[in-house]
């Protein structure tokens, strides 16, 4: 039985992660934004994005009306 290896970092409010030495992914809690071959490319992409902050359910319902 093998054990899954997770490498995870945070940059600018985004998760930058890789599972089992696979591609590096830039994600929010609900969306995968992009995949990259190297950690440096993924971190550069996350750094170039505007800062991400999870919105509260109250703020989301307020903006919807």
From TrEMBL:
Q: What is this protein called?
A: Uncharacterized protein
Write down the species. Pseudomonas helmanticensis
Organism lineage: Bacteria, Pseudomonadati, Pseudomonadota, Gammaproteobacteria, Pseudomonadales
